Amino acid sequence: MPTSRLSARQADLIDRLQALFLAEGFAAFSIGDLTDRLRCSRTTLYALAPSKEQLVLTVVRAYFRTAAEHIEARVAATDDPLEKLAVYLEAVASELQPVSAEFFADLADFGPGNDVYQENTRFAAHRVQALVTDGVKAGALRPVDASFVGAAVAQVMGAIQRGEIQAGTGLDAAAAYRNLADLILTSLAATGR
């Protein structure tokens, strides 16, 4: 359901579902559990989506859409190419701060939700690639293969989502993204800047 057609009540429910799913995951919840937690009727939830799976997908899409809007708004606030890359990577980490390991695990196990995550990961990798290309052209970043940087970022993002980074390092998703940002920025910064 496009957010433009949501009533204020429905938009509030999507926000509350998003907060719940990000904190606790979504696989273990039944529609009955959700109505109890949100203090609403099944009819109210089914007005958002015709099934639990579609409801989850609606919430996952809303989360990633809103996160992307927040990230791009922060990036647009600066003109410096190195700062744009730094702001983008930090904004991604900030948007992932409320995301629990349970949400990521449920997302990985839910095909349509995982597809949304993978689509957003591809977009983020292309966005990093474009920001690196711009930074190299401006002399703010040392000359590197921006396609490789984008591909490497996509691999790490996938490993974060699958829980591999947390299992190997103990870092949650937001901390892992912040460390990825530090690695990229430190390794790509042009000398003499």
UniProtKB/TrEMBL annotation:
Annotated TM spans: none
Domain HTH tetR-type: 18-57
SUPFAM superfamilies, A to Z: Homeodomain-like (SSF46689), Tetracyclin repressor-like, C-terminal domain (SSF48498)
Keywords attached to this entry: DNA-binding, Transcription, Transcription regulation
Gene Ontology molecular function: any one: DNA-binding transcription factor activity
Record keyword Ribosomal protein present: no
InterPro entries: Homeodomain-like_sf, HTH-type_TetR-like_transc_reg, HTH_TetR, Tet_transcr_reg_TetR-rel_C_sf
Protein name stated in the entry: TetR family transcriptional regulator
Organism, scientific name: Virgisporangium ochraceum
